[in-house]
Structures
1.
Amino acid sequence: MKATISSEPVKHFPVLLKELISIISPQYGGTFIDCTFGQAGYTNKILEFPDTKVIALDRDKQCENKAKLLSKKFDERFFFKNLRFSQLSNLKLKNENIKTVIFDLGYSLNQIKDKKKGLSFNSTGKLNMQMGLNDFSAHEVINKLAKDELVKIFKFYGEEKESKKIVKNIILERKKKFLETQDLVRIINYSKKNKNFRINNSTKVFQALRIFVNKEISELINGLIIASKVLKKNGILAVVTFHSIEDKIVKYFFKSLSEKKGVSRYMPEINTDSTIFELKKKKPILPSKEEILKNPPSRTAKLRYVIKKIDTYEFKTDVKDKFKDLLDIENFSKKL
Ligand SMILES: C[S@@+](CC[C@H](N)C(=O)[O-])C[C@H]1O[C@@H](n2cnc3c(N)ncnc32)[C@H](O)[C@@H]1O
């Protein structure tokens, strides 16, 4: 797991928790949306403050057990839905007074340890990588997609430089049998010439597959757009990312909606001379040395946030045009 994995197997560390809490100020109360409930690290902390209410989402149905316990304890102050955050509009929050929306992207310790999910390159058996509410699995991707499609997935979602060699060998080997998780690991290991001793050989391909199987690019872009709509004036949108593709999208989205663009087709329709957000800090907030020591996978975490400046539900953004190449890759799954 990225966000919350620890060197001690069972301990859960919510990433950048102190920093997040100081930005979102739950001591003043209000309604918070936790789009990535996970192990309830952020939600629990927010609910410690008596005047808060949390609406939590997670695509993983297994989060429901933890959510039920919190519902019992906090009754009206806590509400959970097993939804993808791109489905946030299902909750009809247009007229709610939403103070903050939080995303802590990636996956949790429970998910990486869940052998059936197969998110880790240490997993055995059939390829999967579904986090929940998916349409297809990594098994179908690796065993069915065309050569050029796999190369693009590995290259653009994993930034894997040796994609072509790896895919050539996948295509050769899958003629003999369906490839499982450890077949893929073995193929990557013998295909790669330039071994990187800082990360596992399989890291980039596994990241790429996870992003593709979970449609993480459209999830993030649609999640950011709908979150920005439901926020009220002075509301805060805070996002923790773990790899450069996610961070690039969040950075662009925040920056482009925080700048006055004059007469641009991307300006909000209603407030033509206002920007949607105020960007307080251009640079992301990073974990301290102490946090990285305690929880090494937090080292790639970046926290960015913006404050909504106007009460508008409708606005325009060019974020989908900007990341069209990444979004188009998701269409390869249509034939699966
Ligand atoms: C890093 S964990 C969150 C940890 C949480 N902040 C905590 O402190 O316990 C990420 C969670 O987001 C969920 N998730 C990832 N993508 C999602 C999506 N598109 N919609 C809803 N949940 C998602 C995962 O299932 C996982 O439980």
2.
Amino acid sequence: MKTTLTCPKCGGGKIWRIDRFTTPSEYEGGSEMHVVIDRGPKEPLLTVGSFDAYVCHGCGYTEFYGRHLAELRHMPSSGVHLLERPGTAPYR
Ligand SMILES: [Zn+2]
């Protein structure tokens, strides 16, 4: 949808792009959506990246695209999993 500007669900061609998707909060301007990783009781929460949203004007189907996610690491115990298609070179 991001590159084709065509909704994969309804075929619509009007797509909203919302940069750095933000949700309402008690803070002025809202709270930007991040990946928040709980690394255990002795480590502070790790906050990584933000997301752009692409929303179909016709049906509301939405895709999120992460940005600035370079700090993400495979940490299954924290609920962060890097899934790789077999045959994919590691660390690309
Ligand atoms: Zn649609």
